[in-house]
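Hey L., structure's done. Input below.
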Amino acid sequence: MSPMTTTNPQRLQGKHALLTGAAGGMGLAVAQAYLQQGARCTVADLAEHPAPPLQALLGQHPDALQYQRTDITQTDQVQALISAAARRFGPVSTLFNNAAIFDMAPLLESTEAMYDKLFAVNVKGAFFVMQKLLAHMLEHRVQGGAVINMASQAGRRGEALVAHYCASKAAIISYTQSAALAMAPHGIRVNAIAPGVIATPMWEQVDALFAKYENLPPGAKKRQVGAAVPLGRMGAPDDICGAAVFLASDEARYVTAQTLNVDGGNVMS
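Output:
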């Protein structure tokens, strides 16, 4: 349990949060934090059946948590997700827009297929989840609506081996700003979080790819990036929860169009 969830409970009482990419890692950690803060949660991911950690959470919160298999690249499935969420828990007031994938290759070896796959999930999918959820909020006249898009420190800069992923996360930062301006007259806030290096299951894939392209032994890149963080370590999924709860809560009622770095000091802005 994250320390912040024990000191000031129920900061999200009465809110209904929809979370994508919530089968594990940061999405699952934030779902736990939202539940502990009093929210009802609809969580979505690609798997037909939830993995054991999420299944256990569903068992602990049968009246406040539901799972819906969703491929966010399919807009009809996104609409079905929002409809299923509203049927169970009423209008959605909070979006944690987290689903994303990673891949990398040298710039001159990067393929059209890699580009299409990354942008289909990280940009197109994320945008239309946000767009359809914002339309839902307006339709239901949701008060205090909040969207939290998941960007990345990779969206703040280019990297020679990670061009498409960096560009996809830069797009999230830009879409966050545009959506925030569009929704400001309606009282709906749109912000983003830019995590640094977070020790999620995805990092096993990231480490393996760096090992391949930088001729490193397995695990070396993960150790290197952790040691390079000013705070001296990789982040844990729980390290995202404080920012995610704050941005979803009424405490952030005057915060919009911002991308909050949660990265141990890697990026200074």
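The radius of gyration is 18 Å. The CA atoms of residues 83 and 91 lie 9 Å apart.

-- N.
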